[in-house]
Amino acid sequence: MAQVEYRTEQSFLPDFCGVRTLFAVVVSTTVLAMVLALAATDHLQAFWENFSMGALYVQWIGLMAATFICVLRRWLGKLSHGRAGLVAWLLIMLAALLVSLIAGHLIPMEYFPGVSLGDLMIRTLGISGILGALILRYLYENHQQKQKELAESRARFQALQARIRPHFLFNSLNTVISLIPQHPGQAEEVLQDLADLFRASLGDESRMSSVGREMELTRQYLAVEQQRLGSRLRITWSLEDLPEDAPMPALLLQPLVENAVYHGIEPAVHGGEICIFGRYRNNVVALTVSNTLAEQDAGVHRQGNHMALENIRQRLAVRFGEEAGMHTGMVEDRYQVRIWFPVKGEKDA
């Protein structure tokens, strides 16, 4: 099954060819023009004239600089952070110089009262240089923060890989031993499922899995637990039109189901039920794991450390940003965990 790798950009500069970045440039330059117009206007009656002229002037600088960086993005991506930042700053200064020269020749200078062409160029270059340096510094710090979050997410993933509960392994092996004398075929199936589960848990975090593969791993895990718990474990699946080939981070669903078995089914005297729901709406996959809880008088309560939940939450945030999320809580006397994430094409993954 095809897998998609995480792509890491060497340059801290965002994609200035993207719609979101261009929109941010337009909004930022408009706000800057408004601030400059408010600061330079003696009477509010002249504010709109100054603002409209200033917005047009500043936006042309921003959009031209974004165009330069967009055209050179592949080359900039091969440079170190320092060199890429310096080149980007020089491109901003070049855009400011060109726009000031063009404006000085095309726009009558009476629109710039008390300002000569030389003054206009010096002021434009000065403001562009200072703001450009501040913006590039912000982009660099934001990139460093994201890299830190990614490193923390990978560390949590590795901790999750090493986290497979010993009791699950030992109980599964005991199940295999008990099946060998009378049901060797079932014992072999359990061993195969165990091998697939451990192979998936020891996989590379930089690779993406798929919705179909994660569903299959979850079924294999439940098949192993079903052999051990028997009728105490009741499973309900409700999946609607899930895109099985859609990429998703590995080990998202199975740890949620494992938590449901460990905290909800095993402590219950009569077992319980796990419900797994899957929906696909508006290019968003939503997966829900719901489990019954042990009776209050069962005398067994397992306190989890929430490492798996926090790991999943962080990896969703790093991978998809605000487009993905997780919600946990009680729903109709059941504990429920719901995750959702967008389905993107391979070029966006």
Keywords:
349 residues; five-stranded mixed sheet; kinase; alpha+beta; single chain
Show the helix and strand layout.
Elements: H1 19-40, H2 47-71, H3 73-76, H4 81-106, H5 117-161, H6 166-179, H7 184-201, E1 208-210, H8 211-229, E2 233-239, E3 247-249, H9 253-265, E4 272-281, E5 284-291, H10 307-320, E6 325-331, E7 334-342
Helix pairs in contact: 1-2, 2-4, 4-5, 5-10, 6-7, 7-8, 8-9
Keywords: Kinase, Membrane, Transferase, Transmembrane, Transmembrane helix
Protein name: Two-component system LytT family sensor histidine kinase AlgZ
Domain Signal transduction histidine kinase internal region: 155-233
Structure notes:
It contains ten helices and seven strands. It has 349 residues and is an alpha+beta fold. The protein has two domains: 1-162, no CATH class; 192-342, Heat Shock Protein 90. A five-stranded mixed beta sheet has the order 2-4-5-7-6. α7 (184-201) packs across α8.
Structural class: alpha+beta
Tell me, what's the shape?
A: elongated
The fraction of residues assigned to DSSP E strands is 5-15%
Radius of gyration: 29 Å
What percent of residues adopt helix (DSSP H or I)?
55-70%
Note the main sheet.
Answer: 5 strands, mixed
H/E element string? HHHHHHHEHEEHEEHEE
Number of strands: 7
What's a concise summary of this model?
It is built from 10 helices and 7 strands. The chain is of the alpha+beta class.
